[in-house]
Amino acid sequence: MTNVLAVVEQRDGVLRGTAREVVSAASRLAGQLGGSAHALVLGGPGIADVAGTLGGWGAEVVKVAAHDALGGYHPDGYPQVAARVAKEGGYGVVLLAATGLGKDMAPRLAAHLDVPLAADITGLDGEGGKVSLTRPVYAGKAFTRITVDASPVVATIRPNVFQPVDATGSGTVETVEVTEDPASWPTRVVSFEATGGDVPDVAEASIVVAGGRGMRDPEHWGLLEDLRASLGDDAGLGASRAVVDAGWRPHGEQVGQTGKTVAPKLYFAIGISGAIQHLAGMRTAGTIVAVNKDPDAPIFKVADYGIVGDIFEVLPRLTEEVRAVRGEG
Asked: Taking the model in full, what pTM does it have?
């Protein structure tokens, strides 16, 4: 019997959308391994009020570590507390989301546990009692299945790949005492600066509207903003490396091998040629829609739907049609 621990994220006392995905993935894996799925939530006082909802996604036990010093992510505190919980609980697998926080925390957690890290996982299998993991390689051109000869297995899962599944029952909430001394943590978190306003992070958005050099000028980005807004609150904005390097958009929106890896249900590639570095960050999207004036652009080789035309004529019409379908026209 192998129990699985899902380390979930919260921000300002609100659980992130990836929390459901990580817990659901942990629940499915634990079922294959004959164990139970537990969740760990780290946050400030009062975080226990929302932690219990994780039972609805398959967490039989929800462990809550609440402390003033854990109100926001701390690169020393979070991994230390999580490592202790993982050791004391004897978990065979520890899962985190491959978000900005998860990518920072996971290697630190693995170091505390003295085990390797399996990053950016897109498949989990526990049949036969042995954990195997699938992840993309060669810039997303192929997938490899790996096993980790260590316990616990620490892995980050790609957002929007493992769909959340409703579970029956509710999780039992347990309090974890924070015995670590915050004064001993060498890092001091001065402040957090939010970017993007109410727009979802491109790595977590279920719909992504991304633009490239085909937009010609940063002043034209409003056309992408309009399309994103027409698609609803779950849509985020992305950009190619060329656009970011040119200073048109912030690095936090960059999609690709040197940016963020995304796996939304729907991905719009607008004016993006489709260089292999960009494809590495988005080719696992559920449905890809490409708009480009060049019929031979590489992006069309991976697109499910393609429009060859002037994006400055296509985008306004596309936005208009989306609004009409959504009843906002």
From this structure: 0.84
Write out the H or E segment, with its range, that includes residue 268. strand 266-270
Alpha carbon 284 to its chain's center: 13
Residue 95 CA to residue 110 CA, distance in Å, equals: 11
Task: Give pLDDT tens digits for 141-180.
Answer: 889 999 999 999 999 999 888 988 887 667 899 999 999 9
Using CA atoms, how far apart are residues 24 and 302, in angstroms rounded to an integer?
A: 29
Distance between start and end Cα atoms, the chain: 55
Give the single-character DSSP code of 296. T
Q: How far apart are CA 328 and CA 317, in angstroms?
A: 14
pLDDT digits (tens, 9 = 90+) for 246-300: 999 999 999 998 888 898 999 999 999 999 989 989 988 999 999 999 999 999 9
- Spatial neighbors of 41 by CB under 8 A, at least 6 apart, are 8, 10, 15, 47, 48, 51, 54, 62, 63, 64, 65
Preceding peptide of 152 cis, ω within 30°: yes
CA 143 to CA 4: how far, in whole Å? 24
Rg of the chain taking only CA atoms, in angstroms:
21
Gap between the Cα atoms of 110 and 117, Å rounded: 6
Domains with residue ranges and CATH for the chain: 4-184 (3.40.50.620), 207-325 (3.40.50.1220)
DSSP single-letter state for residue 201: P
Task: Report the alpha-carbon distance of residue 184 to residue 186 in Å, rounded.
Answer: 6
Instruction: Provide DSSP, 81-144.
Output: HHHHHHHHHT-SEEEEE-SHHHHHHHHHHHHHHT--EEEEE-EEE-GGG--EEEEEETTTTEEE
Using CA atoms in the order 76, 78, 79, 83, what is the torsion angle rounded to 10 degrees?
130
Q: Cα angle at 39 between 53 and 126, to 5 degrees?
A: 120
Give the number of other CB atoms < 10 A from CB of residue 212.
Answer: 25
pLDDT, the chain, mean: 92
SS3 314: helix
Quote the pLDDT of residue 169: 66
